[in-house]
């Protein structure tokens, strides 16, 4: 079978199937694996392409999907626990830390909103109910009837609990228990920081996983950088007889009598497989790899429900260690104006992974990765000199805002590289550089999100365009589900 793309969703699918005895070929257009979870090296720094806030590396329960994915192919990866998931810097001098210790986090929140203590506990209790349901069952394909029956008979209460939350969004539940508008805005940014939409548009199932696992399994950073996850999965893939081919850009998926039977590369090479799995976005899969005149009705309907999220403007900085104040946390989110939270450059995300793993930078220096939503329309059709000048101006705006947290940042810069939506499109092969799909309007929780099978026989999708959506642990879930569905279809 063939997997197009070596993002984490594609690699988990590939490794799971290789471990079951399937013959697997992964085709990756770039020179290293990982996609948005890859890395690059410059001047002694090893930068993560994306964020360094990683779920799924816990050592208990069933939601530790990255740990389980590595174990399935007999590889391991050392991780470093992060005591604070996020340090928020919000309007009205609202500064909050989401501590790994659950009660410590609640107490910090309650101290700021004492009148909402009961509501705070009730809301996050609802998140724990979702998480506990997920954490009590093996997470595989919801498209496979025998699996669903088995899980239902093993954990009927958990299944019924999840069914209750499937059509619900976070905002609806938060408003049942919380009245303070500023606290509801905090719930919005709690969702926005990983779903890129506020609470009213964020599925409760996803929030239950994220808001609880950060205290249960915790945020754990992979030693050597996020790129090590993909490297280790490739190691495991090859250990079990699978193959990965780099610089292998797929031109099209080959259809015969409406069935996906292989792929053609841009150099003309053809590979045939019993099943084809696309780790590209659905916009790239249906429209580029599948001709636009062959797009199934189901995919057109999906495009009515979901739209492309923004991309990001990314600053990869190497800075003198003296720039960071003592007790600086690894992850920060900055919003100065609630009304601009969803606008381009309205929210700044900051990761400083060298606070957890100093080996990623030269001695005496740190990595600061700052990124903010940005649309590709702002970067299109610019001559090279205008493009570079615009990048420099945008970087200057972000650095000026970061100086409030880290005085002397500009003076302490040792290295800077700026990436735009055009960079994401070019290197990550994602249409318009998008982070992934977001609801075009208010949907009923996760009920609009497609699973792995498509309307084209023999073709499956995996990654953030499939259930349960965006985030590293979410796409790992998608990989487990896709591999399970394919394995059943192949009789493995």
From TrEMBL:
Cofactors needed by this protein, per the record, are: NADP(+); FAD; NAD(+)
Q: Where is the signal peptide?
A: none
Provenance organism:
Planktothrix agardhii (strain NIVA-CYA 126/8)
- What is this protein called in UniProt? prolycopene isomerase
Gene this chain is encoded by: crtH
Q: Say yes or no: keyword Transit peptide present.
A: yes
Q: How does it sit in the membrane?
A: Peripheral membrane protein
Where does the protein end up?
Membrane
Cite the PANTHER family for this sequence: PROLYCOPENE ISOMERASE, CHLOROPLASTIC, PTHR46313
Q: In which pathway does it act?
A: Carotenoid biosynthesis; lycopene biosynthesis
Q: Which family does it belong to?
A: Belongs to the carotenoid/retinoid oxidoreductase family. CrtISO subfamily.
Which reaction(s) does the protein catalyse, per the Swiss-Prot or TrEMBL entry? 7,7',9,9'-tetra-cis-lycopene = all-trans-lycopene
């Amino acid at each position: 079978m063939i997997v197009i793309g070596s993002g984490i969703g594609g690699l988990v699918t590939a490794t799971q199937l290789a471990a079951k005895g399937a013959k697997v070929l992964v085709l990756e257009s770039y020179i290293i694996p990982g996609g948005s979870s890859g890395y690059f090296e410059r001047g002694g720094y090893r930068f993560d392409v994306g964020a360094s806030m990683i779920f799924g590396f816990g050592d208990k329960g069933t939601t530790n999907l990255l740990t389980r994915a590595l174990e399935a192919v007999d590889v391991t990866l050392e991780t470093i626990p992060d005591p604070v998931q996020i340090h928020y810097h919000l309007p009205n001098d609202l500064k909050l830390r989401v501590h790994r210790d659950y009660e410590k986090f609640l107490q910090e929140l309650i101290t700021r909103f004492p009148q909402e203590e009961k509501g705070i506990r009730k809301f996050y209790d609802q998140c724990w109910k979702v998480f506990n349901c997920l954490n009590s069952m093996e997470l595989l394909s919801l498209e496979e009837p025998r699996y669903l029956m088995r899980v239902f008979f093993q954990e009927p209460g958990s299944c019924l609990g999840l069914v209750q939350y499937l059509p619900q969004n976070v905002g609806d539940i938060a408003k049942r228990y919380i009245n303070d508008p500023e606290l509801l805005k905090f719930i919005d940014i709690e969702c926005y920081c990983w779903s890129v939409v506020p609470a009213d548009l964020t599925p409760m199932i996803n929030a239950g996983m994220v808001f609880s696992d950060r205290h249960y399994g915790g945020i754990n950073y992979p030693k050597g950088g996020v790129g090590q996850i993909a490297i280790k999965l490739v190691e495991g893939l090859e250990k079990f007889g699978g193959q990965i081919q780099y610089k292998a850009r797929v031109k099209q998926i080959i259809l015969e009598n409406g069935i996906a039977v292989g792929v053609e590369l841009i150099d003309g090479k053809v590979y045939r497989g019993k099943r084809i799995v696309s780790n590209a976005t659905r916009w790239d899969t249906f429209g580029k790899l599948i001709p636009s005149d062959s797009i199934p009705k189901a995919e057109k309907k999906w495009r009515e429900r979901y739209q492309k999220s923004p991309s990001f403007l990314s600053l990869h900085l190497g800075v003198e260690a003296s720039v960071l104040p003592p007790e600086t946390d690894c992850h920060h989110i900055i919003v100065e104006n609630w009304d601009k939270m969803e606008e381009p450059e309205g929210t700044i995300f900051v990761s400083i992974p060298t606070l957890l793993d100093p080996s990623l930078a030269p001695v005496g220096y740190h990595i600061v990765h700052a990124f903010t939503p940005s649309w590709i329309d702002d970067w299109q059709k610019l001559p090279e000199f205008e493009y570079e000048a615009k990048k420099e101006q945008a970087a200057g705006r972000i650095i000026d805002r970061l100086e409030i947290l880290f005085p002397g940042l500009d003076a302490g810069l040792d290295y800077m590289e700026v990436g735009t939506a055009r960079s994401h499109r070019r290197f990550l092969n994602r249409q318009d550089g998008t982070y992934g799909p977001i609801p075009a309007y208010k949907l009923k929780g996760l009920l609009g999100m497609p699973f792995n099978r498509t309307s084209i026989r023999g073709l499956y999708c995996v990654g953030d365009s499939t259930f349960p959506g965006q985030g590293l642990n979410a796409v790992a879930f998608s990989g487990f589900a896709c591999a399970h569905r394919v394995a059943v279809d192949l009789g493995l």
